[in-house]
Amino acid sequence: MRPYSQIKAMLAITKASLKSTFRSPSAVIFSIAFPLIFILVFGFLSSGGNINVNVAIDIKSDTNNVVYAAIKQIPGLKFVQGDTAKINGELSKGRITALIHIQKSGDSLVPYTIQLTSSEAANPQNVQLVKSILNALIGKINEKKYPNAPTIANISNNVQQVPGRVYRTIDFILPGQMGFSLLSAGVFGVAFLFFNLRQQLVLKRFYATPIRRLYIILGEALSRVTFQLITAVIIIGIGHFAFKFTLVHGLTTFLSIMVLSFIALVLFMGFGFIVSGVAKSESTIPPLANLFTLPQFLLAGTFFSIDNFPTWMQPFCKILPLTHFNNAMRDIAFEGNSLMDSWGDISVLFIWIVVVYAAAFKLFKWE
Fold this sequence. Notes:
This protein has 367 residues and is an alpha/beta fold. The chain has 2 domains: 6-46 and 168-363, no CATH class; 54-162, no CATH class. The protein contains 13 helices and 6 strands. It has helices at 6-22, 25-45, 66-71, 84-92, 124-145, 169-199, 202-206, 213-243, 251-278, 285-299, 314-319, 321-335, 343-363; strands spanning 54-57, 78-79, 98-104, 112-119, 153-155, 160-162. Strands 1, 2, 3, 4, 5 and 6 form a 6-stranded mixed sheet that branches. Helix 5 (124-145) links the parallel strand 4 (112-119) and strand 5. The longest helix is centred in the middle third of the chain and has 31 residues, at 169-199. The two termini are 32 Å apart.
């Protein structure tokens, strides 16, 4: 008589659970359809562009003048600080829309000249917006302080360009939607799954078989991971081929993203185990799950950069695990980082995994 195979039993559970997941309309909608709606909307709305209008002042600029003082007070511009290497790097990646260089012109009638430097990665509309803001500012200075002079400064019509990779809106949106899909499936999917298995006495029936508890968990978890990784392939494929989502190193970048997605999904499923253990009824699962998901959907850079939040709120945003997934995925996809290059963000995910599963071990219930 052959010995009972725990592995075969686990894979049988995985197969059955995976079939059930594919037949669930809610799983397909939350994991695939909903994120794809956002990708399609943002993909059609814009073919490219920066998320913020960030600028920097050239370190060689003349800063002892009224023009510089006024520019620094413009609320619509966010000034990035750093050395020349950092500024040039951010400029080439499109994270800075324009580098502003203020210099004396040698002309008494037009004392200053402003030269803008941008890159191919910057949205031309944002560059034009910066020029319009500066022209309006110069007009106000002329009106108030130099009514008899032609103008205090001129903006060069020739915007200098540095090489850069085109940064499209989809390069920001898709990682956020990927995180949205993984977090939703990990928390809501696992929470409802194990709560219902417990309520319907399915877990109790498993006890009548020789399979161990660990393999029951692994079987169900493996089906969830398989489904979500298939979802990730669909989302990335549509984003890349339909909307030119950037995969810097092609297949290598894609595989790195899949490994990152696996790590994040393992973490997010831990939240689901906690919710399934704490919930007293099926109706309490959504509000409990939203305690873990809503703050991350809104504050983790899913739909817009956390730089848009007040300074006092940003440290909290940077604690959230979804923030680190989003950051790591964007760096891997667009910057070409390896998993080791993004180890700072990934290590935070591993810390969260330890904390979350320690809590899940205490709170998860079998009956």
